[in-house]
């Protein structure tokens, strides 16, 4: 399962970079719905990274930041996920972690399950954000896994 999980993580980074390109081109960088949802998506990625590292999870309560800050945070999270992915093996994937925002009963899952959750959660909200871009009259992009495969698994290219 290591290979497919690494591919999902790589696809996720590419797809998020494509989304940020589409968002940058949309002229809707200030859209509150996009900013709020992107902030949530990235905050969850960051929270799971904290859980996986054994760090305390911090949840800042503030308004969603501007487009540039969101893009930088998302790119940074993917760099950490990529580095984490390079060190994956069967033993590390089987290690269990506790997800603190589900306290009773405790949510104890494997590292593999946590990383799958990150990929699936991100995919869900990225799809919502692409739909929002379309509703705003912008050009959303198809970032399906099969498109990434068809394009020979490109790395994410982040907008300037």
Short description:
The protein is mainly alpha-helical. It contains six helices and two strands, in the order H-H-H-H-E-E-H-H.
Question: Care to describe what's here?
Answer:
This protein has 160 residues and is mainly alpha-helical. The protein has a single domain, classed as Up-down Bundle (Four Helix Bundle (Hemerythrin (Met), subunit A)), CATH 1.20.120. The chain has six helices and two strands; from the N terminus they run H-H-H-H-E-E-H-H. The chain has helices spanning 2-26, 32-53, 67-86, 90-94, 111-135, 145-150; strands at 96-99, 107-110. A two-stranded antiparallel ribbon has the order 1-2. The chain is globular, with a radius of gyration of 16 Å.
Strand content: 5-15%
CATH class: Mainly Alpha
- Which word captures the global form? globular
Low-confidence stretches: none
Q: And the CATH topology?
A: Four Helix Bundle (Hemerythrin (Met), subunit A)
Q: Could you describe the largest sheet, including whether it forms a barrel?
A: 2 strands, antiparallel
Write the layout of secondary structure elements.
Elements: H1 2-26, H2 32-53, H3 67-86, H4 90-94, E1 96-99, E2 107-110, H5 111-135, H6 145-150
Helix pairs in contact: 1-3, 1-5, 2-3, 2-5
Characteristics of this structure?
mainly alpha, two-stranded antiparallel sheet, Four Helix Bundle (Hemerythrin (Met), subunit A), 6 helices, 64% helix
């Amino acid at each position: 399962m290591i290979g497919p999980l690494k591919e999902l993580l790589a696809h996720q980074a590419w797809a998020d970079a494509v989304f940020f390109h589409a968002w940058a081109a949309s002229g809707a960088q200030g859209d509150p719905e996009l900013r709020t949802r992107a902030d949530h998506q990235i905050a969850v990625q960051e929270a799971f990274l904290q859980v996986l590292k054994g760090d305390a999870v911090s949840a800042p309560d503030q308004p969603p930041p501007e487009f540039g800050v969101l893009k930088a945070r998302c790119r940074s999270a993917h760099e950490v996920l990529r580095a984490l992915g390079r060190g994956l093996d069967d033993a590390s994937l089987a290690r269990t972690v506790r997800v603190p925002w589900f306290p009773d009963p405790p949510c104890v899952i494997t590292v593999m399950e946590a990383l799958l959750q990150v990929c699936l959660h991100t995919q869900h909200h990225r799809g919502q954000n692409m739909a929002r871009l379309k509703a705003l009259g912008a050009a959303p992009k198809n970032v399906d896994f099969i498109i990434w495969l068809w394009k020979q698994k490109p790395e994410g290219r982040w907008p300037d």
